[in-house]
Specification:
By secondary structure, this protein is α/β, with parallel strands linked by helices. The protein is built from nine helices and eleven strands. The termini are far apart.
Length: about 260
């Protein structure tokens, strides 16, 4: 397979919150969505850009070959193996650079390094299917099952996302973990979460992560001199998150992160 060059904006070599065990997280640059609450606005544009961080200009984004990344992370393979970890591809959106992603997961597969791909599912099914051949687990984001709400708050409808999810579930349901970023007042109602639980049952998906709201996002918007449109939001209480977890059908394992 060809060694492809892509563009990333960061590598976290010892992450513990993006999958099991100790992991390296590769952050792809570029995303087709514009979620109003996005925690990584610096990932939106595919090309490098200048950020103003603490008064200093910083270049965000660099070109790198897939083999270079694999060379960087293989030195940590003993830590991956002993902890049950590996490498997570995140973003941005991994499907925004599909050939680069495929080259990367293939090389990780050849090195026997566990891989997770975090994706919104917003891309071509052919690309997702190609990547799935070599990917161990997909963390598949679901923001809302309401198409109109999805369009308003992410800049795109959800039909492609749901179509790809259904096809991926037919191909490999046990590879899928649904991830729901819970944004206060936007998509965290009990009714909306129940609808996603029902979809998971329909597709035989057995694992869901509920992601509590992270209030640190607004700081990054200052780097880009952009407003944070949701404003100040109040985090969900532990009791409410526990309630959402307990309302899940017994066939689904739900974890609050």
């Amino acid at each position: 397979m060809t060694d492809i060059t892509g563009i990333i904006f960061d590598i976290d070599h010892f992450a513990v919150h993006d999958g099991p065990g100790i992991r390296a997280v590769i952050y792809f640059k570029g995303c087709p969505l514009r979620c109003v609450w996005c925690h990584s606005p610096e990932s939106h544009k595919k090309e490098p850009q200048v950020l103003c961080v603490n008064g200093a200009d910083v270049i965000c984004g660099r070109n790198v070959r897939a083999s270079e990344i694999v060379g960087e992370v293989t030195s940590n393979k003993p830590f991956f193996d002993s902890s049950g970890g590996g490498v997570t591809l995140s973003g941005g959106e991994v499907l925004f650079q599909p050939e680069f992603a495929k080259s990367l997961v293939w090389q990780l597969h050849e090195c026997e390094i566990h891989s997770i791909v975090e994706t919104s599912g917003m891309g071509k099914w052919e690309n997702l299917c190609d990547i799935a051949q070599y990917t161990d687990v997909f963390y598949y984001d679901i923001k809302s099952l309401d198409d109109t709400k999805h369009l308003i708050f992410t800049g795109a409808g959800n039909q492609t996302i749901l179509d790809n999810l259904k096809k991926l579930a037919e191909y490999a349901p046990k590879k899928i973990v649904l991830r729901i970023p819970l944004i206060p007042g936007y998509n965290d109602s009990a009714n909306e979460i129940e609808e996603i639980y029902n979809l998971a049952l329909e597709l035989h998906i057995q694992s869901i992560h509920l992601l509590r709201y992270n209030p640190s996002a607004p700081a990054k918007y200052k780097w880009l001199n952009l407003p944070y449109r949701p404003g100040e939001l109040e985090k969900q209480s532990d009791d409410y998150l526990d309630y959402l977890r307990k309302t899940a059908p017994k066939e689904i394992d739900v974890i609050v992160l």
